[in-house]
Amino acid sequence: MVDHMPHAVVGSDFAEKEVGELTDEIYERLGIRIEATELYEDGKRVLVLSVPSRPVGRLLRFEGVPLMCTGESLRAMSDAEIFRILSE
User: How confident is the model at residue 59 (pLDDT cuts 50, 70, 90)?
Assistant: First the structure.
């Protein structure tokens, strides 16, 4: 998709014919099961990844670091946020 409005489809060949391997690698690295769907618009491929919400009381880590969304960024989770999640 292009960044500017209107968001036109440009297509992607990322993980083409390797969607199963991609979802398996994500499960191995993060321990969460995602869904991957390939959509086609005017012959152009769009790969859509659906990530479930975090399970109650569980931190999701990437390379051992618990991360949280702050706007459009991922940042290391604060001690207060870690405590809040573990107290759920």
Answer: confident
The CB density around residue 77, as the number of other CB atoms within 10 Å, is 19
Instruction: Determine phi and psi for 47, rounding to 5 degrees.
Output: -100, 120
On whether the CB atoms of residues 47 and 15 are closer than 8 A, the answer is: yes
Confirm if 56 and 75 have CB atoms less than 8 A apart.
no
Confidence of residue 24 (pLDDT cuts 50, 70, 90): very high
Q: How far is CA 12 from the centre of its chain?
A: 17
Question: How far is Cα of residue 54 from the mean position of the Cα atoms in its chain?
Answer: 11
The pTM (predicted TM-score) of the whole model is 0.58
